[in-house]
Write a structure and sequence with these properties.
Elements (H helix, E strand, L loop, with lengths): L1 E7 L2 E7 L23 H9 L16 E4 L2 E4 L35 H8 L1 H10 L13 H4 L2 H15 L1
Antiparallel strand pairs: 1-2, 3-4
Protein name: EOG090X0IZW
Subcellular location: Mitochondrion
Main location: mitochondrion
């Protein structure tokens, strides 16, 4: 071991040179993570047979579809994504909407507008053809007009639960 001493303005600087290997050959590989695709073929083969617990298996942001129990992987059916695609045979519209289409801004419907959209046409037809009774009730009501308020509410709730 060689020792160099330098003094400057009353301070002593010592420079030492070591001939032994730094950290006895150990390297800090925690700074360099080796994920699935990195490493040699031998490393990948060893990881496939017996994965080392300190080397994480990188999933690239994909959520797991189960959990590991001992040495086996248990798949949970509810975690597998299910793609629901409607049958579009005979569908005339094309799937592309141009960005040049103007935005349509429509305020929410008021009860009066909803009544006008659903019932006014039928009431006007019944009035013109004289199919209204003495209390302005239809003589030939449609199936929707025959419903009681409770039946109408149940029908709306069943349609809403089918959608959700």
């Amino acid at each position: 071991m060689e020792l160099n001493v330098l003094s400057l303005l009353g301070k002593q600087f010592v420079r030492r040179i070591s001939t032994s290997a730094c950290a006895c050959g150990k390297r800090n590989f925690k700074k360099f993570p080796i994920f699935n695709k990195r490493g040699t073929r031998d490393f990948k083969a060893r990881q496939a047979k017996n994965p080392h617990p300190d080397v994480p298996i990188h999933t690239y942001g994909v959520r797991p579809i189960g959990y590991k129990s001992g040495t086996s992987f248990v798949t949970i059916k509810e975690l597998i994504p299910e793609m629901i695609v409607p049958d579009l045979t005979g569908f005339k519209l094309k799937p592309y909407v141009s960005y040049r289409v103007n935005d349509i801004v429509q305020p929410p419907m008021t009860p009066e507008e909803l009544f006008g959209a659903v019932y006014v046409k039928k009431i006007a037809e019944d009035f013109k053809s004289g199919k209204l009774g003495p209390d302005n009730e239809p003589l030939e009501p449609s199936p929707e007009e025959r419903l009681t308020p409770e039946e109408a509410k149940e029908k709306v709730l069943s349609i809403r639960s089918d959608i959700v």
